[in-house]
From TrEMBL:
This is (rape) hypothetical protein. It comes from the Eukaryota. The lineage of its organism: Eukaryota, Viridiplantae, Streptophyta, Embryophyta, Tracheophyta.
Amino acid sequence: MRIFQSQVTLAPTVRAAVDRQIRDRLLSIKPSPCFQPPLLQVYFAFTRPS
């Protein structure tokens, strides 16, 4: 959209979209009995949810 229609996407919007995609992907992975804590919890340990 930026190239063809000259529409700008703000950084917070891009960040929120990427964050949502990462969370959705981590939630879709089945938990492994050998890996604790769950991957989503590890993700939250390294990011600050908004």
